Amino acid sequence: MTEDIYTVAILLLLPMTASMLVSQVNPYNALVIRGILGAVAALVYAMFGAADVALTEALVGTMLSITLYAVAVRSSMSMRLGVVETASSECPGYEALLSSLRTHLQEKHLRLEVIPFTQTSTLQTALANKEIHAVFMVPNSENSDQLTAPTGDLQIRVRRLYEILQAKLSHELVNLRFADVETANLSRGKGL
């Protein structure tokens, strides 16, 4: 009788852990819960006499999926910002902008990865080819009023990143614009 209670309790851990995994917002916490889910699944298999399946689940299923998921989370949870190499020297508020971007992105568990480019044309090409998520451009110094103008222009091609930063970034720091590269690429393709 008590053995049945323990069996039912362990069996109930499986759907409970799975629901915790599905409802998790933080990808790193989800990674840990995925490991727990695999351990519980291996325990259930072992309880019902399938030791070989339990071992396979523990070694291949759980370990491999956690490793692949960790690599995917690490590589996809970053915003790649393209800048011209001279932006830090040309722009007085550049460091403040980067600091503000890092702060707001960390709230969403994202990293900021700054990618330097030598020319503005290669920067725009990288944005169009989806090699980077956003572009920071320094405005022409002769056209801008240093007292009232923002530090520069930030073009973002990912709508969700644009929505997050539009609500958070100070308009004194940067002009924020959504760059619809999908439409631009389609119109360029039709013109050929």
UniProtKB/TrEMBL annotation:
Main localization category: membrane
Location(s) in or outside the cell: Cell membrane
Listed GO CC annotations: plasma membrane
Membrane topology recorded in Swiss-Prot or TrEMBL: Multi-pass membrane protein
Keywords from the UniProt entry: Cell membrane, Membrane, Transmembrane, Transmembrane helix
Residue stretches spanning the membrane: 6-23, 30-48, 54-72
Annotated ranges, domain MrpA C-terminal/MbhD: 12-75
Coiled coil is among the record's keywords: no
Entry protein name: DUF4040 domain-containing protein
Organism: Adonisia turfae CCMR0081
